[in-house]
Amino acid sequence: MAMTLSDAIIKCLDEIKTPANYMQVYKKIVEDHLYDFKEAKTPASTVSALLGNFIRNRDSRVKRIPQKGGNFTYFLSKYESEISLEALEVVDNEPKYNSVQEPTTIYGFEERSLHKLLSSFLNSSGILSKTIFHEQSNSKDSHQKWIHPDMIGIRFLALHTKTSQSLMKAINRKGIFELMAYEIKKEIKTDYELKKCFFQAVSNSSWANYGYLVVFEINDILMDEIKRLNQAFGIGIIRLNANPFESEIIFPAKYKELDFITIDKLCKINADFEKFAEHVEKYVTADNRYVSALEKELADFCDPFFLSETASKAYCIEKNIPVDNIPEESKVS
Predict the structure, then answer these.
(1) What is the DSSP-derived secondary structure letter of residue 20?
(2) Where are the beta strands (DSSP E) in 166-259?
(3) Local structure of residue 108 (DSSP, 8 states)
(4) With left for phi above 0 and alpha for psi between -120 and 50, is residue 234 left, alpha or beta?
(5) What is the pLDDT of residue 12?
(6) Which terminal residue of the chain has fewer beta carbons within 10 Å of its beta carbon, N or C?
(7) 323 near 316, Cβ under 8 Å?
(8) Is the pTM of this model over 0.70?
(9) Is 240 helix (H, G, I), strand (E, B) or coil?
(10) Where are the domains of the chain?
(11) Do the Cβ atoms of 153 and 120 come closer than 8 Å?
(12) Beta strand 128-131 pairing with 72-76
């Protein structure tokens, strides 16, 4: 049986051992006669797309390292311990071939375009969320934006009877909901970027029950350090997917008590945050007769979200967010 292109890519990476870009992999496939590209119009791009597909499908065999200009190098996970730290920072200076177009990368879209994807993922988990625009705050101090999360979320405790709901409200109103803070990034590719983004998330979520760093594209090389930081500081990590329903919490956040002094400060300087707090207060203190109406009012105030993969895919294409598609010519056996 003839070797598939995916198998040929794995074989080449196994023989190369060190990080290689898609063109290097393509050239070795051709030189070693591992696959016949006669039906592929742009064979190098096909290799590039399939390499990206290994990453998007969370294939444990393959990892990649971001390079300048939105490019990547790829290697097999089993050789990770043999790769030097210097190699992780190498910039690909190999001449580009005019006949080959680089695949769409994550650099071509606005970070805030990810908010609707995150709100969709959170909504599927029973969390209502709201974007907080720090530039609309009335504070002149630029450092104050380090207390603003990109998004905030609320999850209500599932109490099924009116009696238990009333009892919880009477005893401890804080106990019927949890507040989350989310710091969102398009990509994190180096240890320096990880530290900067992580401690921004620590600062911006100091008031909340849970704090999360949300990343669309993250270098798998950093996972050990992410685990250490998560255990030390309790910030959770969410890997966001173009299909929001395939997003995942890589490391959960640790619970902490609400900091009402910082909440009060945020309410003073940001109208959206204050409005959110008002909606929550009205909901948790309302008579049961008005709960449904106030829940709808809160939901309408919060960010919109997708109900289907089709809608989210169309949105990603419109916003230039990479989707988990590969060219037709790469669907070969």
Answers:
(1) B
(2) 177-188, 210-218, 236-239, 248-251
(3) G
(4) left
(5) 93
(6) N
(7) yes
(8) no
(9) coil
(10) 5-103, 111-309
(11) no
(12) unpaired
Q: Are 186 and 106 spatial neighbours (Cβ–Cβ below 8 Å)?
A: yes
Give backbone dihedrals phi and psi of 195, rounded to 5 degrees, phi first. Answer: -60, -45
* pLDDT given at position 162: 52
Fold of 5-103: Arc Repressor Mutant, subunit A (1.10.10)
Judge whether 214 and 226 are in contact, CB under 8 Å: no
Predicted pLDDT of residue 90: 42
Say how far apart CA 271 and CA 113 lie, in whole Å: 22
Could you give the 3-state DSSP secondary structure of residue 137? coil
- Res. 160: pLDDT tops 60: no
User: Cα–Cα distance between 203 and 321 in angstroms, integer?
Assistant: 28
Neighbours of 98 (CB within 10 A): 6
Contact assessment for residue 302 and residue 29, using Cβ atoms and an 8 Å cutoff? no
Q: Which residue type occupies 244? A: P
Q: pLDDT (tens digit, 9 = 90+) per residue, 163-215? A: 444 544 544 555 578 899 999 999 898 888 899 999 999 999 999 999 999 99
Alpha-carbon gap, residue 133 to 144, rounded angstroms: 12
pLDDT averaged over every residue in the chain: 80
Encoding tokens for residue 99?
A: 């006949």
What are the pLDDT digits (tens) for 39-77?
777 888 888 888 988 888 888 888 888 776 667 888 898
